[in-house]
Amino acid sequence: MVTGGFRKPGRWRRRRGGGRRLSDSPVDDSGTTRALPERVEPEEPALLSFLTPPRPEVVVKADLLPAISAISLIALLGLPMGWLWSRMAPPQQSVLGRGGTVSPLQVENYHEFDGIAIFTLLAFAAGLLTAAVLWRIRGRRGPILLIGGVLGSLVASWLGIRTGGSLAAGLYPLPPNPQLGDVITVAPEITTMWVLVAMPLALSLGYGIATSWNGFDDLGRRLK
């Protein structure tokens, strides 16, 4: 007759007052007890989705019309930008040669670089100011408005070059009957199209800095 026998691990036994439960500390053949592993249930997915709001998506349809309006308004900045450049860019004192060619006097050829530098600085400043204004439109912040601003700044730069060249030619007209060897004043002009990237670059830089400084996933559109 065997008394005080060992229970096999995992066997069910009846509890007082009814019901059964699995033994918490089963006993093995060596007489030692071992703890059964406990399973940790994961948190409810519904609770996690409630605590973590959905990530906002890019709004296209609602921002498309404001972006088109931004292109039109920003493009008009080329008019005052060209006017300022025509007043600030220095002309060249040149000698009239054969066939209507002109040769700048001594260091006057440096004024060509001066005209390019002045337009680049004007366009860069206009781009930064435009980025600040676009960022203030809180309800439309996002990539669609930024793309519209970049396209509008390209048009504004092109319009500024055309307007500034026409106004400068009116400020420094050629003499009515120039003779060979006469010193004439040549209106400033922009000889490179690389200046077109100055304003879009400044606008993208300013808008990008404001975006990185912002701490909201939707850039604060919901706080308007």
From TrEMBL:
InterPro entries: DUF2567. The chain crosses the membrane at residues 64-85, 116-137, 144-172, 192-216. It comes from the Bacteria. Residues 8-19 have a biased composition (Basic residues). Residues 1-38 are annotated as: Disordered. Keywords: Membrane, Transmembrane, Transmembrane helix. The keyword Phosphoprotein does not apply. This is DUF2567 domain-containing protein.
